[in-house]
Amino acid sequence: MWRWGLVAVLSCHGGDRDTNDGDTAPETETDCVHVGDVEVSDEADLAALRGVCEITGDLTVLGPSLTDVDDLSSLTTIGGSLMIGTWGTSEDATYFPPEISNDALTSIDGLSNVTTVGGSLLVDNNPALLELDGLNSLKSIGADASIYGNEALASIDGLSSLKFIGGSLSFGGNDVLADIDGLSSVVTVGSHAVIMESPSLVDVEGLSSLATVGGALYLSHNEALADIDGLSSLTSVGEFLYVQGNDVLTNIDGLSGIASLGDELLIAFNPSLVDIDGLSGLTSVGGRLTIYENPALANLTGLSALSTIGSDLTVNDNPTLTDIAGLAGVTSVPGDLAIGGNDALCQSLVDAYVATVTVAGTTWDSPNDPDC
């Protein structure tokens, strides 16, 4: 990415233009279009963009003295990506060293006329940014959307016009963000949807319109996440489904519309999860099925419709699990079968189930409770 100056960067500057020799028409230019990438690091860079309505390349906003981006109020279209802050985690920023950040940026209201971002939207590691109201006109993102590591971010309601994300959607590390209601119009995520490491997030009602995730769905290490009912419109997940490390999540009822997964299903390290009845519509899993270290999980009834898996089947270290009847429809395991370390599960029940299953790989079916 190159930083732009004032030499021949705008497509034109107004006024009369010379022609070549009268026989060739002059090149058509638009006064408000900037061709190429732009990096804004200080107020002078911002001032140079006054009146620009379109940037054909990427726009990067990254500078410790920036407090707002009000000079971008004429901007409506970004052909490439919009990057506000460092990309990735503050400990390992990929494109910029972590010592460079938008320490003073509290508002992006100057972007309020932007309707389209052709590439990715990255709003990462902006410690003073409070809300995203400046994105209230944004309707589509061609590639990925990442909202990560914004310590003071309290609201994303500014994304309420957004309907389409062509790539992945990633949220995490926004310490005080309690909801993602601003995503309520999003119907499709073309690749992965990742909601992780959001310590104040209590629900995902903001995803109530989401019907399709083209890649994987990750719900991981969200300490306050109490339910995922907001995913009730979701019917298609193209790859993995991971639900792990959510301390107070008691059920996964919001997943009841999913009939099949393209790849792995992992339910692990959820200390308050008492049932998986939200998977009652699931009939096939394209990859592995893993149920691991869920201390409060008593049964697998939610898997009663499941008949096909694509690889290993693992049910390990769920200390209060007493019933695996929900696995009865799975009679063929293309990989390994492991059912062990479930202290309350009668070994006789495990033995009876294993006797009904054809296993292509290795079977580990102990120790469980040997006394029954």
Q: Whole-number average pLDDT?
A: 90
Beta-strand share of residues: 15-25%
Total number of helices: 2
Radius of gyration: 25 Å
Find the structural class using helix and strand composition. Answer: mainly beta
What's the CATH first level of the domain at 1-14 and 33-211? Alpha Beta
Specify the biggest β-sheet.
Answer: 14 strands, parallel
User: What is the terminal separation in angstroms?
Assistant: 66 Å
Give your account of this protein's structure.
By secondary structure, the chain is mostly beta strands. The chain has a domain at 1-14 and 33-211: Leucine-rich repeat, LRR (right-handed beta-alpha superhelix). Helices cover 3% and strands 22% of the residues. It has two helices and 28 strands. The chain has helices at 43-47, 347-354, and strands spanning 33-34, 38-40, 54-55, 59-61, 77-78, 82-85, 116-117, 121-124, 140-141, 145-148, 164-165, 169-172, 188-189, 193-196, 212-213, 217-220, 236-237, 241-244, 260-261, 265-268, 284-285, 289-292, 308-309, 313-316, 332-333, 337-340, 358-359, 363-364. The strands form four sheets. The chain has a 14-stranded parallel β-sheet. The protein has a nine-stranded parallel β-sheet with strand order 1-3-5-7-9-11-13-15-17, with no helix packed on it. A three-stranded parallel β-sheet has the order 19-21-23, with no helix packed on it. Residues 1-29 and 88-97 have low confidence and may be disordered.
